[in-house]
Write a structure and sequence with these properties.
- The structure holds 2 protein chains of 2 kinds.
- The two termini of chain A are 34 Å apart.
- Chain A contains 11 helices and no strands.
- Chain B has one domain.
- The longest helix of chain B is centred in the middle third of the chain and has 33 residues.
- Chain B is mainly α.
- The two termini of chain B are 49 Å apart.
- In chain B, 74% of the residues lie in helices and 0% in strands.
- The chains are: A mainly alpha, B mainly alpha.
- At the A-B interface, helix 2, helix 3, helix 4 and helix 8 of A face helix 3, helix 5 and helix 9 of B.
């Protein structure tokens, strides 16, 4: 299930040199904005919830999920160096699960931790806002990583598709059509966060049992299908 | 024996000829690189699979314009219900995705497969390569953003709206999207040229465009809510799209669309213009620096 060598290589591919910069940039921006808002505005629970919900959970977590999830496998398939990994006596499902663990870990570290810190900067965890959004970010990290890892194995335009899902489907359609919210990782994660705080500040449009079932189903289904795609992978040349 | 060797050695003429056809020179090579990059941005001359995404985005970009025209003609309105200058702002995500998917394919693959030295074995210089790529990307974006405006303008004439007024608004819209195209192309190409891995390039471009816009509008919203309205127009300087919004508000007759309908005055607009020109020059400078070493 977990191969340390594959994990080490994936960590290096994700965090090596300049690639880590973009991963550090987003959380840093969140913290800067949080500090600026606190300085301008003082502690306000509603503003904290708006900022964490609108910027951290709706924009930052999916973006980091896209970068970590597709970055864990996409570039290797893209430049064909995946064959060196596939020719080793490691089961392909093990490769996928290992890369999934790495992607989840990276997404969690770069999204949930800054969310927690930003929450404490904004209002000192008043009404459990910081903890609630951190829980949501942790849960969303798992589902996003699995989903975008699958995209990385399926399409060469994984990053674009992932971004379109995260920005257009969840942010745009989610705010216009309420039905789209049922099929949104963000709302499933919010359902869990709502349960944690049990307060009016964090709300989700999806009931908790539905959200849990969908989260588990999407994560397991995406991982299984990614493993299946890797077993039957055809290497295409650069167009 | 060696004494017989001189008799058997001869040089054969196997018919090598030097090239004596026309030599098109530097300008021709630059033009070719420009047109090839421009066509490449829409997938022309590339595989069928790579035409799907840009053509889809182009269709998505034009569809709302057709709908606007249809409704305006049907309801016999005396003006279109969306301003020319606001169109690109509403469809910014489509523009961002187009740029994010096409800027890396324009420059990243040359860098990753180390084909840049092959370009420089032709009679072009670094400045030609950078200008051709920059110009092609800006033109591709201009085609993407100006076509819907053209559709709207033609539609306004079909609906028998006032020709002179519509032509003026259309012209202002064209100037606005031209500025937007050059600015965005510069930002996108710089991000793509700095991250040769295609996937990371895509993410970097989209992150710079949407995150900076999201951050700036969040901060503007907060300063409006806290009645700190003086800072709203200055915050607009920190993201490419709000720069264009502010600029067209100040000089191109666009309605104020910052929170609280804050108007950008001509003085502040001049600062916006300076920042925009500075960013364009900076993108050009960074690209020139980036390619200084690659060729060698």
């Amino acid at each position: 299930m977990y191969d340390p060598t594959v994990a080490r290589l994936t960590y290096r591919a994700l965090l090596g040199r300049r690639r880590a910069a973009i991963l550090f940039l987003l959380p840093a921006l969140l913290l800067v904005i949080a500090a600026a808002v606190r300085a301008l505005n003082g502690a306000d629970d509603q503003v904290a919830a708006d900022l964490l919900g609108g910027f951290a959970l709706a924009t930052m977590v999916p973006l980091i999920g896209v970068i970590a999830g597709t970055g864990a496998i996409g570039p290797e398939i893209d430049d064909g160096s995946i064959v060196y990994l596939l020719s080793k006596p490691v089961k392909r499902t093990t490769i996928i699960t290992t890369k999934l663990f790495v992607a989840i870990a990276v997404t969690m570290v770069f999204s949930a931790v800054p969310t927690l810190i930003a929450g404490f900067i904004l209002n000192g965890n008043g009404q459990q806002v910081a903890v609630a959004y951190t829980v949501a970010a942790l849960v969303a990290s798992i589902a996003y990583s699995a989903l975008f890892l699958l995209l990385g194995t399926v399409s060469r335009h994984a990053v674009v598709i992932g971004l379109v899902y995260a920005l257009v489907w969840e942010a745009l359609f989610g705010s216009l059509i309420s039905g789209a919210r049922t099929l949104s990782v963000q709302q499933w994660a919010l359902a869990l966060a709502e349960k944690v705080t049990g307060d009016g500040l964090v709300t989700s449009d999806v009931a908790l049992p539905t959200a849990t079932v969908l989260l588990v189903a999407v994560t397991l289904g995406a991982t299984w299908f990614a493993g299946h795609k890797l077993r039957t992978l055809k290497l295409a040349g650069e167009e | 024996m060696s004494s017989q060797a001189p008799d058997t050695t001869r040089i054969h003429n196997i018919g090598y000829r030097s090239y004596d056809g026309p030599r098109h020179g530097r300008a021709y090579a630059r033009r070719s690189l420009f047109s090839q990059s421009l066509r490449g941005a829409y997938g022309l001359g590339r595989s069928a699979k790579s035409k799907v995404l840009p053509m889809l985005l182009f269709a998505v970009m034009c569809a709302p314009a057709l709908i606007i025209v249809a409704i305006s003609v049907y309801t016999k309105a005396d003006k279109l219900f969306m301003e020319y200058t606001q169109y690109a702002v509403y469809l910014q995500l489509v523009i961002a995705v187009f740029l994010a998917s096409q800027a890396p394919q324009s420059v990243s693959r040359d860098l990753r497969f180390r084909t840049v030295p092959l370009y420089f074995s032709r009679p072009i210089e670094r400045v030609d390569y950078v200008l051709a790529k920059y110009g092609a990307m800006a033109s591709a974006l201009f085609v993407l953003t100006a076509t819907p405006l053209l559709i709207m303008w033609i539609g306004s004439m079909l609906a028998k709206m006032d020709f002179a007024e519509q032509a003026k608004l259309f012209g202002q819209g064209l100037v606005s999207v031209a500025i937007l195209s050059v600015l965005f192309a510069g930002v996108g190409l710089v991000m793509a040229a700095l991250t040769p891995r295609r996937g990371f390039g895509v993410a970097a471009v989209i992150a710079v465009l949407t995150i900076s816009y999201g951050a700036v509008s969040t901060l503007q919203g907060i300063s409006y809510a806290t009645e700190n309205t003086g800072s709203i127009v200055w915050l607009g300087l920190f993201s490419p799209l709000t720069l264009v919004i502010g600029l067209q508000n100040a000089f191109l007759g666009a309605p104020a669309s910052f929170p609280g309908e804050m108007q950008v005055s001509a003085g502040v607009g001049a600062v916006y213009l300076l920042v925009v020109l500075g960013l364009m020059a900076a993108s050009y400078g960074i690209l020139m620096r980036r390619y200084r070493k690659v060729g060698l």
